Amino acid sequence: MKLSLPKSYNRKISRAIAEFDLIEEGDNILVGFSGGKDSAFLLYTLAIFQKSMAIDFKVSALTIDLGFEDDADFSEMEEYCSKLDLPYHIERTKIADVITDENTKNPCSKCAYFRKGSISEFMSEHGYNKIAYGHHYDDAVETFLMSIIYSGQIKTFEPKSYLSNSDIHVIRPLIYLREEEIIKAKEITEYNPVASPCPHDGETKREEIKQLIKSFDDSQQIFYNLASAMREGNKIELWPEELNNKAILERSRKLWNRV
Ligand SMILES: Nc1ncnc2c1ncn2[C@@H]1O[C@H](COP(=O)(O)OP(=O)(O)OP(=O)(O)O)[C@@H](O)[C@H]1O
């Protein structure tokens, strides 16, 4: 397969790799391959960068089979990896049993938790030091807004992070690409994304937030304003840390009780 990447994609991915120090000499990188458009494009780009960069590193793909179907067929994904000349692995799990159980609260976060557990186990067994995910710019901004709205915290995932428990780095080389760019990239990869077998697919809070951002008249500008608000070093004027009741009581006593 002849691999090539338009300049605009190349520039944004190279910038992320350089700015966040995502890839180093000797890395053994595992790409989480769900079968969706994002991780498929990530594999395509890393196959190219592996050849074009002046440092040596390995790239392989791993699919965690969540176990929705007993005889799930991954042959298209396998074929795609072989066209890219990348090793492909599948880990079979029973995570679906937990997700489909009616008594399971927060099935999406439980699924992500178990999936990450399976990935890090696979990595330590096979000597990988980095896991690459297909998260893009829209994912980061949506996560930022979601965490403010739903959990009262100003945070999002980082382009590169270190998990000390498992001694692995998580990297997200597509972080400067907008989702619409990845959708368009299907013409480049000639890969047909596999539909998610998950019953909760498309009905998540993330989808609501995505639609909320799109609903603004000036949604492009608003997207980039949110993106700049999630940068460290930008102007922050927040309220002081909340005082506990005891401290407030002590202050009040001093202010209102004469001694
Ligand atoms: N079953 C899986 N096996 C391996 N990696 C996975 C799996 N599911 C998700 N991932 C990894 O986690 C990333 C984020 O997962 P998420 O479920 O949010 O997918 P997404 O944003 O729809 O991306 P994609 O288009 O790659 O499915 C994916 O891009 C992929 O790298």
TrEMBL record:
Keywords: ATP-binding, Nucleotide-binding, Transferase. One of its GO terms (molecular function) is transferase activity. ATP binds at residues 32-34, 38, 64, 134, 139. It comes from the Bacteria. Transmembrane segments: none annotated. Pfam families: ATP_bind_3. GO terms for biological process: tRNA processing. InterPro entries: Rossmann-like_a/b/a_fold, TilS/TtcA_N, tRNA_thiolation_TtcA_Ctu1. This is tRNA(Ile)-lysidine synthase TilS/MesJ. It comes from Orenia marismortui.
